[in-house]
Amino acid sequence: MEKAMQQSHGVGYSEYGRRLDVRIQVEKQRERDYEASNMIVNELRRKLHS
Prior knowledge:
By secondary structure, the chain is mostly helical. The protein has three helices and no strands.
């Protein structure tokens, strides 16, 4: 799991846990990724149902 965090966000869990600024940056990126994924899914659904 540590490797996944390092690959996805460039930081390990220990640094994520210690530094608030890193945690905020990671969580903002997760939110952007989530929103982008939802936009893609919604677009695909719209195309499938039209």
